[in-house]
Amino acid sequence: METSRPGLDLETNLGHRLQQRNHTDAVLPRDQLAKHGLHADLAYQLIHDHLMLDGNAMLNLATFVGTWMEPEALHLMRECADKNMIDKDEYPQTAELENRCLRMLARLWNAPDPEAAVGTSTTGSSEACMLGGMVLRWHWRQRRAAQGLDDRRPNLVMGTNTQICWDKFCAYFDVEARMVPISRDHLQMTAEGAVAACDENTIGLIDIGSNSIRLVIYRAGGRLPHPQFNEREVCRLGEGLSETGRLAPDRIAHALEALERFAQIIKASDIDALKIFATEAVRKAQNAQDFLVPAEAILQTQIRILSGEEEAQFAGKGVLSGFVDVDGIVGDLGGGSLELIHVKNLASIQNQ
Question: What is the pLDDT of residues 69-116, one digit of tens each?
Fold first, then answer.
């Protein structure tokens, strides 16, 4: 079997693509198709090397998506990559699993009738937001039409910290975006601000929050530690903190439940060193000990509460670990705080 590398074993089901011999010098235009193709292994190597300049997803602790899953899940994805999911007749078992997942989510969100819930899978969260926004808009229009009222000026209320996809939704589907300002004391949209922005033309309200607990397991070796596991659980530990100054009991219970699961993972992972940090919610809460005492008992390790300055320093070091010749401002916007730091020439400089 012919290949661009004479010593390479290509006894695979892709071998029929590699029959070219005496491959001439290839010209690869940047923005158009080449006149002649490449051997598959060369094409792979070119794209693989190009993508090495991307950041490492496992090191991206700021992302709101999962960056790790079990190898079996990845294997299932590879097995299904060639299926056109929209063809429900051809792939009925895939469709059946999709519908089961929809009913699971309907129950999770306390839908009135989970068995009759309507939904679909999407390519990503932005597409899901677009579809969800369209549902809000159409339901509002139907209600207005049934009442004989004007349905030409819908609005969507959101904080100025919301994701950009909601701005795009409003622009694409002719919906007024009503932005509720956030402040230094309230880094999330407040209930009072949201209510003040709503009127009879409001189709929905978008609230953004975080306050998550994350477990990252690294293996030492090389210039940088190699991440082996990276998972986040959104617990909203700081929910209501700005109004009451205290952590809510149900939020504490949710966070402790997540820590119990993480503790089992830690125990099974043969960890040599364990470092646990808490940030703004615990730093600010009057009843922080209500969470810290049982949390440290679960983890059997003391939890270090970071100051705002230390949070900024860690954010800067994270950027420096993945880039060279850095000169700029790094912002870490969490569920309850914002830290800014100036990083320059491989040295982080505090600038809160």
Answer: 888 999 999 999 999 988 989 999 999 999 999 999 999 888 889 999
For residue 290, give every residue at least 6 positions away whose Cβ sits within 8 Å of its Cβ, in sequence order, or none.
247, 249, 252
Distance CA 50, CA 58 (A): 18
How many Cβ atoms from other residues are within 10 Å of residue 6's Cβ?
A: 6
Does residue 58 contact residue 67 with C-beta atoms inside 8 Å?
yes
Q: End-to-end alpha-carbon separation of the chain, Å?
A: 62
pLDDT single digits (tens) 228-276 = 777 777 787 887 777 788 988 998 998 899 899 888 888 888 777 888 8
DSSP state of 239: T
Q: What share of the chain is helix, strand, coil (3-state, %, to 5)?
A: 40, 15, 45
Among residues 344, 346, 266, which one has the least CA distance to residue 300? 266
d(CA 132, CA 126): 10
pLDDT by residue (tens digit) across 187-198?
667 777 888 899
Q: At what angle do helices 288-299 and 249-268 cross, to 10 degrees?
A: 20
DSSP letters spanning 244-292: HSS--HHHHHHHHHHHHHHHHHHHHTT-S----EE-HHHHH-TTHHHHH
Distance (Å, whole) CA 276 – CA 283: 14
227 conformational bin, left if phi > 0, alpha if psi -120 to 50, beta if neither: beta
Distance CA 192, CA 163 (A): 21
Tokens, residue 302: 């003391």
Q: Residue 176 forms beta bridges with which residues?
A: 155
In one-letter notation, the amino acid at residue 228 is Q
Q: How far apart, in whole angstroms, are the C-alpha atoms of residue 350 and residue 167?
A: 32
Length of the chain: 352
